[in-house]
Amino acid sequence: MIFTVAIDGPAASGKGTIAKALARELGFRHLDTGSLYRAVALRSLEGEDPVAAARSLDPERLGDPRLREPRVAQEASRIAAIPEVRAALLDFQKGFARRDGGAVLDGRDIGTVVCPEAEAKLFVTATAEARAGRRHAEQVAAGLDSTLEGTLAEVRARDARDAGRDVAPLRPAEDAVLIDTSGLSIEQAVSAALAVVRSRI
Ligand code: C5P
After folding, report:
1. For ATP, which residues are the binding ones (predicted)?
2. Under a CB-based contact definition with an 8 Å cutoff, are residues 8 and 173 in contact?
């Protein structure tokens, strides 16, 4: 059995939380594809050529806590616009999705480019204000320097870059189900997502 759940959406929309919860609930493997771009970004910030970094990436080693830093997120959305970087990361993502069993992948172009054949597609959104509020709270909890205004500006800048690029821009697949998490608790968002996926199994 092969069953792929593709989850896309902008930064801090809740897609990662939903993806993890679905994978746990359904016993599926999970891949946070943003961490691939972040790993390339970290190496780019250290001076390496991003295309070379993407081609030699070890996807088994994505646990570096520095990957969550805001400067890495911004650099990730910059290097993610380079077509050769995206191409170098594609095979691993496709392979992960289509191995025997179930898989949940979350990112920006899963339903449109990586897994257009996914059995279930979700596009998770929330207002920029709601997303910035969540990200700001996470950063404060992690002891990072953060202001709400600065986080909102970062979220907007990343949205504009991710949706405006020529290759694999952030947009819902035609057959994706939209979930707006702005007014939802985590539990409500997860159960809405589960209902969609269960209806396809
Ligand atoms: O999801 P996350 O915030 O970790 O992603 C970091 C950046 O990586 C995004 O802003 C986006 O530019 C890029 N990305 C992408 N395609 C994906 C996943 C992430 O372009 N499938």
Report:
1. 9-17
2. yes
Ligand 1 center to 122 CA (angstroms): 16
Q: In the 8-state DSSP scheme, what is residue 112?
A: I
Quick one: pLDDT at residue 70? 87
Q: Judge whether 181 and 175 are in contact, CB under 8 Å.
A: no
Strands (E), 156-197: 177-180
User: pLDDT tens-digit profile of 16-46?
Assistant: 999 999 999 999 999 999 999 999 999 999 9
Pocket of ligand 1 contains residue 34 by CB under 6 Å? yes
The least confident of 24-28, 61-65, 185-189, 197-201 is 61-65
Residue whose Cα lies nearest atom 13 of ligand 1: it is 77
- CB of 162 within 6 A of ligand 1: the answer is yes
**98 vs 49, 81, 128, 165, 180, CA distance in Å?**
30, 25, 33, 27, 28
23 and 29 Cβ atoms separated by less than 8 Å: yes
> Could you state, in order of their start, the residue ranges of all structural domains in the chain?
4-197
